[in-house]
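Example S7 (structure tokens).
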């Protein structure tokens, strides 16, 4: 057995307790001053003050890791990304800077559909290679678990290829990958006006193969005006649930359609985006098990108003924050940017942002019993920040403070400052 002892953390953030954390609970991050963590192999064995843990052990049996002057937190969980794709769409970003809207770009052939051909033309090996490079960047930002979606093929072969690439990456890369099938990510031109027919094609031809190869744990749909309406989205989600998929939904991003309400009544693990969520949708999410996953970097890149995080938290919602890394609306996985946007523009405290990036992100991918907090029995997914307090995270604005990443008890990243 390998034994490691992290001691003298200036601030140890545990995020322990019931998951997910809702409303006022999000401010309770279980902070321990002069904290310590005992790691046995890949699991957390004990957590407490350094003084308490010193009395429990024979130091000769442990590798000692000195965390003096450091902040120690659970590994971040990026619970919404589209990180495996081919090609780029830098031209669209320029169009938006000139005033074109996201929906107008989609209508002229850009948007999601513009990524289809490059992804179709890429080999599985090429997708693994670009995916690995993106995972390396995520790891540097302290992300130890990531959700990845398909959705850039919208045909059987390419959807399976994306998911197989993620399955291979999960085997070879330290970052754990939770896979989501997002076949109904957009409407192919030949199916415009025949959205239900397109969904039936996914249900009958593609998703059984996804299940047969165990390629995806979740199913997702882009419920949006001009894409998939509430009725078609509900039909798809119910069929996906019958097939054994856990559910997610892209909801109320550009228009208030009732996506948050749909997430609540269909039992989605998370409703994501939510810039235009209604008061009733917020109330229903607060009273259900849905995680409200907010993607502020997307709003930032699209120059849209941010999701009403403060209203959601004050209403009792469980809020998560994720990057939405994708080739179009948000080509970034910068965790410090998410911290800054959450604290400065969404009126969240740093404690709430940390909760949103750890234990609530873990709950959004149904992993809160394994990751997202530093507690006995959980995976030893732990990160060290350069500075001694969580308050440096928004203060040293958009600067990556991650110095060391421990994944499953092993050091997998260390930056020499």
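Recovered sequence:
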């Amino acid at each position: 057995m390998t034994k490691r002892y992290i001691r003298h953390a200036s601030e140890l953030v545990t995020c322990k307790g019931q998951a997910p954390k809702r409303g006022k609970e999000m401010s309770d991050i279980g902070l321990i001053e002069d904290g310590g963590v005992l790691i046995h192999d890949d699991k957390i064995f004990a957590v407490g003050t350094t003084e308490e843990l010193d009395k429990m052990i024979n130091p000769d049996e442990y590798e000692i890791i000195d965390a003096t002057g450091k902040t120690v937190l659970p590994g971040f969980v990026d619970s919404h990304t589209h990180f495996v794709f081919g090609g780029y769409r830098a031209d669209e970003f320029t169009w938006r800077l000139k005033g074109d809207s996201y929906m107008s770009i989609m209508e002229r052939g850009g948007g999601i559909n513009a990524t289809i051909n490059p992804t179709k033309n890429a080999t599985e090996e090429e997708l693994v290679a670009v995916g690995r490079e993106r995972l390396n960047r995520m790891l540097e930002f302290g992300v130890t678990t990531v959700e990845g979606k398909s959705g850039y093929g919208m045909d059987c072969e390419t959807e399976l290829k994306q998911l197989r690439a993620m399955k291979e990456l999960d085997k070879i890369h330290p970052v754990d990958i939770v896979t989501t099938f997002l076949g109904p990510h957009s409407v192919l031109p030949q199916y415009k006006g025949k959205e239900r027919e397109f969904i039936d094609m996914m249900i009958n031809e593609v998703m059984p193969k996804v299940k047969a190869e165990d390629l995806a744990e979740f199913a997702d749909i882009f419920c949006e005006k001009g894409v998939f309406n509430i009725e078609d989205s509900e039909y798809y989600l119910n069929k996906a649930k019958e097939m054994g998929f856990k559910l997610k939904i892209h909801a109320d991003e550009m228009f208030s359609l009732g996506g948050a309400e749909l997430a609540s009544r269909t039992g989605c693990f998370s409703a994501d985006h939510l810039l235009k969520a209604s008061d009733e949708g917020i109330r229903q999410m607060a009273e259900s098990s849905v995680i409200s996953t907010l993607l502020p970097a997307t709003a930032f890149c699209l120059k849209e108003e941010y999701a009403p995080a403060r209203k959601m938290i004050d209403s009792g919602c469980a809020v998560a924050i994720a990057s939405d890394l994708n080739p179009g609306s948000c080509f970034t996985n910068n965790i410090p940017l998410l911290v800054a946007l959450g604290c400065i523009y969404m009126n969240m405290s740093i404690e709430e942002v940390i909760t949103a990036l750890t234990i609530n992100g873990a709950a959004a991918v149904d992993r809160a019993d394994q990751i997202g907090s530093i507690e006995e029995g959980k995976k030893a997914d732990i990160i060290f920040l350069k500075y001694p307090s969580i308050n440096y995270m928004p203060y040293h604005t958009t600067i990556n403070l991650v110095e060391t990443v421990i994944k499953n008890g092993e050091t997998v990243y260390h930056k020499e400052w």
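Notes on this example. The mean pLDDT is 96.
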